[in-house]
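Aim 2, interim progress: modelling of the 4-O-methyl-alpha-D-glucopyranuronic acid-bound target.
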Amino acid sequence: MNAVHPAWLRRVNDEGVVLTRDPGCGLGPEAYTIARAGGVTTVVAADEAGLLYGSFHALRLDGDQPASTHRPAAARRMMQHWDNVFVHPVMGQVERGYSGGSLFWEDGALTGDLDRVSDYARLLASTGINAVSVNNVNVHAGEARLLTDRLGEVALLASRFRQYHIRVFLSVSFAAPMTLGGLDTADPCDAQVRAWWATATRRVYDVIPDFGGYVVKADSEGQPGPFAYGRTHADGANLLAAALAPFGGEVYWRAFVYNHRQDWRDRTTDRARAAHDHFVPLDGQFAANVILQVKHGPIDFQTREPVSPVLLGMPATRLAVELQATQEYTGQQRHVCYLPPMWSSVLSTVAARVEAVVTVSNAGEDPYWTGHPLAQANLYAAGRLAWDPALDPIELLDEWIRLTFPAAAAPVLHALMDSSWSVYEQYTAPLGIGFMVRPGDHYGPDVDGYEYSPWGTYHFADRDGVGVDRTVATGTGFTGQYPEPWRSRYESLDTCPDELLLFFHHVPYTHVLHSGRTVIQHIYDTHFAGAEAVAAMVRRWAALPPAVVGVDLHDRVGRRLAEQERSSVEWRDQINTYFFRKSGIADALGRRIH
Ligand code: GCV
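Predicted structure of the complex, ligand included:
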């Protein structure tokens, strides 16, 4: 790696921070010791990376501090971008991107603003991120060429990230030996295919010696993969691993594999089961430089899901947990939705089992980086939690607020953001059932939008009840994929947590929750409460003098809050009306339902 960006180190020195690199200090890679006394901060580390992270920590310090040592919990902390090089006719420049165009690509070309890439690299490094993938996991024909004749552009990006200790990864197409190499197969057991990957990979390292490796979405939502050749995903991943191994590179192989052409009439197929069914039998068969990248929940980044059982069931495989900062299903950066309370609960279960935390980035060319200025907190916290999953999410939010806004704004920001995930959950799909979003763009309510579709995301509401029976006793058997204590907890109605009830069970509307309310009354109450909470957020923000946070930012947030309020009312009314009409059960409080 090159030396850390010299301008950054000068700036830190100017702030009175003394950085000492001492290879004999006994600290491991990326670790540092920091202390502050008499206004002078000292940072000691064995390597450049440790100094870099220590220098950012120095800027967060407030007052004198005794010496403390910090080291990352996960060795790899990656931001993945779903950025297309060419504007995609349906998905645009960034798939599920809500922050303007891509930071890296602009209508077929590399961005002309590499300094902004450097700014982004510094931003990511300040949170502890040390890896980034720069193109969409859905690799279209033009983007596939980043691996070959467009490698020079990737090298330019890598030169900017390198100065902040961030390695660049590429998403690659499993079919590349055919589409780029002209072979008539991409079979992982074919000698020519193996040779093609070896040569292509060597060329990458000729140009980018510290290249991180490949990210692969295979046999998933139309992407090519090893199933076409009757091979397993271990065969597929190990093919790329062999090509990368001589250079120290790694494969991030995604476990997001399921049948997206399911027959909705078939009640036995359960999308939640798919990743476990495909991957757990392969435990122990992956090469040493393969990391299996698993979405944190079994379906797809819904507002509430249980932890994926794959993360609990592959002890002989290196694992990464995948989080989604881009708010595809959580308000698309038009709604305030501070996600770390969800991420922390996931990490409290899996942090000790994963060696990488991967987050799908929510940043783009927007001047505020994230479209909704308050969505920056998700970007910031994703990196900080990857470094230390034990950090308290609300203290982390406080840290971000302190570093970003004047103290006078803090009470209002906390009022808007602390519970924003719960509030979003209140006015959207209830009790862990998920989806109920508009098909395609996934924004706003459409209760039956996916009910008769091939995507495997159903709620099964009828006049008597709602929810998916995933029990071993009477359902799809998904609960049986969990080890104890989760298996029994989710299997039994007595112990299944309310917030996941409809994920695991089909129950009558009159079923009484642990909270003491019936399911139908819970639906009504939470939807009225959620929309009211958003209205209160709007009032709080309007009462904050714009000058405290800057007039432009105040206006941007105000306009997004207005949309959140409109949307929350639409969600409330569609969900309440839908379930009132299905069940025929009136709201106990007699509120207006249509
Ligand atoms: C990149 C969901 C999203 C897709 C995304 C996919 C994935 O299905 O809607 O846009 O594709 O997840 O994670 O691969």
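Residues 76-392 form a domain with the TIM Barrel fold (CATH 3.20.20.80). Residues 82, 95-96, 137-138, 217, 221, 256, 300, 328 surround 4-O-methyl-alpha-D-glucopyranuronic acid (CB under 6 Å).
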